[in-house]
Amino acid sequence: MTEEHEGIEKLEADNDKLKDKWSDVLTKYTEAKEMKLQDAESETEKSKIRTVRFSYIVFRSMDGLEHVLDAYKVGCCDRFFTMNLGCCCPERRAKLKKKHFFKRWPDLDVACDPDNIKWFNLGTTANDRRLRSLLVWIVAFLLIFASLVGIILMKNETIALKKEFSSTYACDGDIT
Prior knowledge:
Elements: H1 2-51, H2 62-71, H3 76-85, H4 90-98, H5 126-165
């Protein structure tokens, strides 16, 4: 009977070990799943931040435009210290926080007249602009290089012509 009792105790101990092991595995699994969920949520927040690139706002009058520009005229150092170290000014920090769009401070620029905008270029990506700029620089470099080679060739040709016709002296100004 003692052997049977010892076998039962051993099985119960093994069962407790398995329960502990499975509970550890289960907590690790749930923690990993929660981390993945939080990462996915942060990625969706980041993608939301990246989706808004430009916003065009039309005002009824120039006074409205001036009012908005004055409201967002806060220096970057002032904004940094108020938002990060703003323990002395919680009201000001709250006001600045309300002015953020998608947790970012907007860069305000006054746009040109709509007649001056080339609307078909709005779909051009940054990589397209970089590629165009690179091509322009390559063409400019090739033109400069070709003109330099042309100047050197012409200089060598004038030296050869001077040697051929032995005109090493300068001409007088009284030739008619």
